[in-house]
Specification:
By secondary structure, the chain is mainly alpha-helical. The chain has a domain of 79 residues. It is built from five helices and no strands. The longest helix is centred in the C-terminal third of the chain and has 65 residues. The chain is elongated, with a radius of gyration of 43 Å.
């Protein structure tokens, strides 16, 4: 079932007669049997034609293809879109699980290491204050040099 279009039988209407623009080809030396319009009139006639909208062009293109081809293309585009959405949702869920698991598992460890580091720093400061400058030499640093 064609959608109101006549079947294409290979016959084409003759091309419009445009004036030849210069040149010394074989066509220009033959007598012309049709009355040709000046180029300005031809251009004015083309400007008077109504322009097709994008929607009309897409509709006309859609009518060129049989229904099974249009259905297959529509299904392919729709399926690709659905696959993209599903992949995005799965990636979002995976990122959320990885982030929350990392926070739950690693955050206590990080906090504990920081607490131990602060305690060690406080003990070191107390030791330095109690022992005075001699603690520096005991730690491997030379005391004042004797000359």
């Amino acid at each position: 079932v064609m959608s109101g279009l006549a079947p294409f039988d290979g016959d084409r209407p003759p091309p419009p007669a445009y004036p030849l623009v210069g040149g010394s080809g074989a066509m220009s030396s033959e007598p012309q049997q049709q009355q040709q319009k000046p180029i300005e009139d031809v251009l004015d006639d083309e400007d008077e034609l109504e322009d097709e909208t994008v929607a009309e062009r897409i509709l006309a293109l859609a009518e060129m293809f049989p229904k099974p081809v249009r259905s297959a293309a529509s299904g392919l585009v729709s399926g690709s879109f659905q696959l993209t959405l599903w992949s995005f949702r799965q990636a979002s869920n995976l990122a959320w699980v990885a982030t929350t698991t990392g926070l739950i598992a690693l955050l206590p460890l990080i906090i504990e290491r920081e607490r131990v580091g602060v305690e060690e720093a406080e003990l070191e400061n107390e030791r330095k204050m109690m022992l005075g400058p001699a603690s520096a030499s005991a730690a491997g640093q030379p005391a004042f040099a004797h000359a």
